[in-house]
Structure prediction request, 164 residues.
Amino acid sequence: MKGCELIKKQNRSKLFLLLVLAIILLLILIAAFKSCSVHTEATTETTTSNSELDFQPAYHKDKTISIPSVSGIVFKAHSINQKFEFENPAANNCYIVLEIVLSDNTVIFESDKIYPDESITDIQLNQELKEGLYRNCKIKYNCFSVDDNKRLNSAESLIEINSK
Prediction:
């Protein structure tokens, strides 16, 4: 009799332990799902694309700064004069200095100050790019206060540059 009671008690303990582990696993999955859904909400608003651009721009929104970004850029090979559209949204209270950086950290473009509701369309690269696909490049969005030039939040996006 005592042996049967001991086995039942051990089985209940194992069942309880399995139940606790299942609850912990469920909580981890819920937390992982929530972090994924927060990320996708931030990148769903899209804008129209430039005819020279094969990639769709998206707005990444900070609490106070909207940053239009792209996943890639198409440039003309062997030319420093390029078409590239970027607009600093009117709602921003900052100006943005944009940098385009190759994977070896070579800065191929740095904009002047782009104030809210201003845009750029024609840019001049620091160097010509040979024909090819440049992976793991970055666009850096350096944000500064319009009032006192104080550096604010900045952002980076990984991009591909297709030079053709």
Observations:
- The first helix runs from residue 2 to 41.
- The longest strand covers residues 132-145.
- Helices lie at 2-41.
- The beta strands are 58-61, 66-69, 72-75, 81-87, 94-101, 107-110, 119-124, 132-145, 151-163.
